[in-house]
Design goal:
Helix content is 32%, strand content 21%. By secondary structure, the protein is an alpha/beta fold. α1 (2-20) packs antiparallel against α3 (45-55) and α3 (45-55) packs across α10. The chain starts with a helix and ends with a helix.
Length: 559
């Protein structure tokens, strides 16, 4: 009863905000059809604020997946979709797409590992300071006793003529891998300094799983990982969720080891200096080698199974079939830290209440347009992003229409409401043939498009659009840059630095009275225009030739 009342109150406040707001025009020169311009102009910053206000209330308990608060958030989003006139696009005629999950928490006291050489005494490893691990399978315990194979960076990339697994049978063995990817200054070889997905630690586990490995030891080195051991340690100290039925969640010991531990292993095996081995692994001609040491381990896990839901809705287009556009944003956050004193609710107002607010207001604007979009538009608020992009991964595996019929995904994630942006980061938009249109529309919106300031960090692979890209759908996130109207770049940089230092993934990420949602509204209009233009194209958006996601796109078109 309380939930229904709160949903009603939230809806009423949004309606009141809409009455007071003036429409904002789409800039001239954007080459936008009149209907698209009218729909975009109706987007209301006040409505976005009210969505963020409701979703970040303490009532929603931080929107942790599998909790009451997340269910309230999902119901609220579905209610807003329904009130705006969108059609259900979930399962069984509803707005909900259930996502079956299980959460794994390693019992650090009971989990043990040791290196066992061919001769001599085993060397015990201290959990937490020397090794951390998860059993991805969701079983309560695992016994491991397997040989270790050093496979360099653990990459098979035929487009770069690179195969660390050539001639290696990993079934039932442990893959010892280096974090990141072979160093390169050549943009045609692992994209030079930019990180590809091959360098991400998630890829290391997935590729080893494809080859039947029972364990993976990722060698941590701070300069290669771009973060210290404590980041690894802290990320493994909490629950990690997985999708039920994920064919690649099969590694019984998905682990990291300290650089010094890797050196200890190499010394124990008589293989010399680990850094020299890492250097050799980054050069053509590297061959994997089985080390005369086994990994022995016992992993104890506490496992929690639960179901969360993506919330998916559709605005019917003028023409059914191909060239559908998908808009995404995650609604989950970190929930409640029961062990913390004081404020222990991770409200997630900016992350990602803002993306949800934008998604809902775009959906309303399109659904209530007097003229429908050229083709269907889908709006998906996804769950379990903070757990590893799991909701969007499930959406990519089970899209509302076949992948080949979706021409573009635009994602919104954590846009600080601090005014009108004059620059934008559209990391990955230059990888698709729609890029000239993106540039033209950005110019009309007076948005300077900035290159990725830290390409080596691999940010493209850390937000929900990636889940759609990896199944072949051209996808990128719409994000603001650091230049804002009335301020210089230093001011914008300081705002982001302050948010990251004091509010990101902390209970203090709450709605602030000073927040100005006009920029959120502007970027919503920008995205609506881009989606409309993509939908009206005669041919679908495609990846540029040679892109790492071109192959899955082509594969989807054959089915």
């Amino acid at each position: 009863m309380h939930t229904i009342k709160m949903l009603a109150i939230g809806t009423a406040l949004i309606a009141m905000a809409g009455l007071a707001a003036a429409q904002q025009a789409v800039p001239a020169g954007a080459g936008v059809p009149e209907a698209a311009g009218a729909a975009a102009a109706s987007i209301d910053a006040g409505k976005i604020r009210e969505h963020v206000r409701f979703l970040s209330l303490d009532l929603l308990e931080g929107r942790g997946p599998g909790t009451r608060g997340a269910e309230v958030a999902a119901e609220y989003i579905a209610t807003q979709f329904a009130l705006a006139g969108l059609k259900p696009a979930g399962e069984k005629g509803t707005y909900f797409q259930p996502v079956p999950l299980y959460a794994v928490h390693t019992d650090e006291e009971k989990t043990k590992f040791a290196f066992v050489p061919a001769s001599g005494a085993p060397v015990d490893l201290t959990y937490g300071t020397e090794i951390v691990a998860k059993d991805e399978t969701g079983q309560p315990s695992a016994e491991i006793d397997a040989p270790i194979v050093f496979v360099g960076y653990g990459i098979q990339a035929p487009e770069y003529n690179w195969d660390d697994y050539a001639g290696v049978d990993l079934k039932g063995k442990i893959a010892l891998v280096v974090v990141n990817e072979p160093p390169s200054e050549d943009g045609k070889f692992f994209k030079g300094k930019a990180l590809t997905y091959y360098g991400r630690w998630t890829y290391k586990y997935e590729e080893a799983a494809r080859r039947g490995a029972v364990g993976v030891l990722i060698i941590h080195r701070t300069d290669l990982a771009s973060y210290g051991w404590e980041v690894v340690r802290n990320s493994q100290a909490i629950e990690k969720s997985y999708l039920e039925g994920d064919p690649l969640a099969t590694v019984r010991a998905a682990a990291w080891i300290q650089h010094g531990v890797a050196q200890q292993l190499f010394t124990q095996a008589g293989l010399g200096d680990v850094d020299q081995a890492i250097e050799r692994a980054g050069k053509p001609g590297f061959h994997a080698v089985e080390i005369p040491v086994r990994l022995r381990g016992h992993v104890e896990s506490r496992v929690r199974r639960y179901v969360s839901a993506n919330v998916v809705a559709r605005v019917p287009g003028a023409t059914a079939g191909s060239n559908a556009v998908l808009y995404t944003g995650h609604y989950d956050h970190l929930g409640i830290d029961a062990s913390a004193k004081g404020d222990n609710i991770y409200n997630g107002a900016a992350d990602n209440g803002t993306g949800c607010g934008i998604l809902l207001e775009m959906a309303r604007a399109v659904a209530q347009s007097k003229t429908p979009p050229p083709h269907d538009m889908y709006f998906a608020a996804v769950t379990a992003e903070e757990q590893g992009l799991l909701g969007s991964q499930y959406l990519g595996m089970h899209p509302p229409v076949p992948v080949r019929e979706i021409t573009l995904d635009l994602n919104y994630d954590m846009l600080l409401p601090i005014g009108i942006p004059l620059s934008a980061n559209l990391n990955g938009a230059d990888r698709i043939d729609f890029w000239p249109t993106v540039q033209r529309v950005a110019k009309a919106f007076d948005l300077q498009l900035l290159p990725d300031p830290t390409p080596m960090a691999g940010h493209y692979y850390r937000s929900d659009h990636f889940s759609l890209a990896r199944v072949g759908i051209p996808a990128f996130s719409v994000d603001e840059g650091e230049l804002f109207e009335g301020h210089d770049v230093a001011w914008g940089h300081a705002q982001f630095e302050d948010y990251v230092a004091h509010h990101y993934h902390q209970p203090s990420d709450e709605l602030q009275p000073s927040w100005d949602f006009s920029g959120n509204a502007m970027l919503a209009r920008f995205g609506l225009v881009l989606g409309w233009l993509a939908s009206e194209q005669k041919k679908p958006v495609e990846w540029l030739p040679g892109d790492e996601f071109e192959a899955p796109r082509k594969a989807s078109e054959k089915h």
